[in-house]
Amino acid sequence: ESEIPKTTLTGRFGTYRTHAYELTNGAKIGWFNYFLSASNANSQGARDNSNYKANTINGKIGLDIEEKNHFTLSGRLHQGELGTPGPKTSFDIDDKQEDKQNYLNGIWESTFNDKLQLKLQGYMNLDRLEFTETVYPTLDKNTHQSKDRGLNLQSSYKVIKNTNLTLGIEGREFRLNSNTTGKRNATLRSIYA
Question: Average pLDDT in the 181-191 region?
């Protein structure tokens, strides 16, 4: 991490017209730090309708307050598309698969008396997969989407050297929506040590 913002640009190239680029920028300025990145990947593929393209954005910010309190927030946005030609004996020229993967994660950590540590974490994930199969003249699309979010509170106490007692409580909610398997919801709560 640098006091002066640092920027990098990288490029990679391969066969089948494959190319990927990534731009990053990050710095640590006093009690504040951040990191950002954006990437793009493309490939023609080895066969017809095996092309691939994807875009991804990542971000992370951090706050250091009085050395014993730290906050971090990170996130990701990803979208990709992939051609699915199928087996050579039954070639599909227009079937596609699309995916989205997004998440957000926040963590607060505090230390008291050099023995007691508290950690609070909240998170949310979204995954979506779409498969499109074209059977002329109709369009058949299958979707599968899952959402996951939760909250976790954890405490850790240093009893003696190299020995900590950890206690925590977590709540989590999971939702699935699929046109092939239907809808499913689940709520989980746990206490752990």
Answer: 92
